[in-house]
Amino acid sequence: MSQFHKLTIKEIKKVTQKAVTISFNVPENLKDTFSFKAGQYITLKTSLEGQEIRRDYSLCSSSKSGELKVAVKAVEHGVFSKFANSELKVNDVIEVSEPNGRFTFEPDQSKSRTISAFAAGSGITPIMSIVKTVLEEEPLSNFILIYGNKTPEDTIFYNELLALQTQYNNRLKIQFVFSQAQKEDALFGRIDKSVVNFVIKNLFNKTSVDTFYLCGPEAMIYMVKDVLIENHVSESNIKFELFTVATPEKTNIINAVIGQTNVRVMLDDEEFDFVMDSKKTVLEAALSEKIDAPYSCQGGICSSCLARLKEGQVTMRQNNILTDSEVAEGLILTCQSQPTTSIIYVDYDDV
């Protein structure tokens, strides 16, 4: 289970009018703890106006850079993102979790392959880590990036990407897509079906891509995935990570047990027993019992609250991460799981 460590902020850099990068000082004794795979994220925890806030942010540095750095874009009604862009300062202390996440790329310097990514807005953040890692650690491999934004000025890492394209001009190809700006060599509009088809069937039709990485809004990701499959890309070669999802309508779970469920939770080699209302999620119930269960987004789009169901059954309200085989093995997202039996046993340690 990921633990939190207090880290001081080393640098804050404005990268667009609405986004900053935040770098952390990592003490020597925590270097191994904060080693990460390209594409992983960290959870930042702090208190604002007396309320604990946890937010996931993908690392945007390469895995061998020695940097622990994230990008934070201010969003409407975003409590932490606005705070980070306007009030956070160098030398402030933030609690930071150990790196987590399954949206990863692991380099192999002996391989020669082409990796491609479709990203929109702040979805570039984990992709940036993967781009840098491919270029730095797989010298025989190439990268194709399709990146959508409103304008160049709104584009996180725009100048850095141009610099990388110059440095690795034979290995990195970038196709910018702008919805509110006409620019030479960029496509006008949004990343939609026509753009994906144009990229696959025209721009890079003679290129064989090994793996596609998709990151951005939910609708874009599923559209791109569907079009890739239509173009005979194997679903096993498509990886994606959501940073926002549509809020599901509240529905009654048909098989939910009526009333209460007896719960046993294993966490950090300690067992906790309690009774919960079956209308709640396992995570909600655990937190109400003052159990320090791991969590972050509480929306089913990160894997911070992952656990293994050892006894009983649950139904997940939504699942945007776990594969069918992982669910069959007993893995659950506790922030989405409601009991459907009178007894359940949930193990946070066995994941």
From TrEMBL:
Domain of life: Bacteria
Keywords for this protein: 2Fe-2S, FAD, Flavoprotein, Iron, Iron-sulfur, Metal-binding, Oxidoreductase
Domain 2Fe-2S ferredoxin-type: 261-351
Name of protein: Ferredoxin--NADP reductase
Keyword flag Iron: yes
UniProt key word Iron: yes
Needed cofactors: FAD
Span of domain FAD-binding FR-type: 2-106
PROSITE patterns on file: 2FE2S_FER_1, 2FE2S_FER_2, FAD_FR
